[in-house]
Design a protein that fits this description.
7 helices; alpha/beta; 196 residues
Length: 196
């Protein structure tokens, strides 16, 4: 409802394992794509290095473990986008204004754009991307093959960006405004991420 007040671009939902009721809800409001990937590719806590995950838990608590199966599917879902230019928006984001100005941010060579994260790197909760750019393939490959070394998909993508020294215009912070910041009237997308 919030999105439709200020936006007309088509919406596509990606089914990571929805109930029939939720699939029907999504199909009434946009296109629905099924992601045919099982949860088994994401490393369990026991398969991760204990020194690494101790740091994750110190910084983020322990609740994130239950979200990793979904997080690492995000890059795989982005590869299925039927559009030339797309904006991935996490479900915990409230769209308050038009997002049209974001689409051109992916027209540069790298083909993606994101806002900085509250803690470090970039936040993939709002991701602008162009279909077929190599970084999406790399992100998906690493998320599939190396997820035991990263807390979530955005840490994978941030690592790739840093390693490859990629430069791109960043999504303005008001389009991925963390709930940890003070809310205000200029916020375009309010991101209610993490635990409250």
């Amino acid at each position: 409802d919030h999105y439709r007040k200020t936006n007309t671009a088509p919406v596509t939902f990606v089914d990571f394992g929805m109930t029939e009721e939720k699939r029907f809800w999504c199909q009434e409001r946009g296109r629905l794509i099924k992601l045919p990937v099982a949860d088994i590719f994401v490393a369990e806590k026991s398969e991760c290095d204990s020194d690494i995950y101790a740091d994750w838990e110190k910084s983020y608590g322990k609740v994130f473990w239950e979200s990793r199966n979904s997080w690492f599917k995000k890059p795989l879902a982005c590869l299925l986008s039927p559009y030339r230019r797309s904006i991935w928006i996490d479900l915990d984001c409230e769209v308050r204004d038009s997002i049209e100005v974001l689409f051109p941010l992916c027209d540069q060579e790298v083909g993606i754009s994101m806002a900085k994260d509250v803690k470090k790197g970039y936040n993939s909760g709002v991701l602008v991307f162009r279909h077929g750019v190599p970084i999406l393939e790399t992100w998906a490959d690493w998320s599939f093959e190396k997820n035991r070394d990263f807390r979530g998909d955005q840490e994978v993508l941030s690592h790739i960006i840093q390693e490859q020294k990629l430069e791109f215009p960043e999504v303005p912070q008001v389009y991925n405004w963390s709930r940890l910041y003070e809310d205000h009237s200029d916020v375009k997308i309010y991101h209610l991420h993490g635990c409250t």
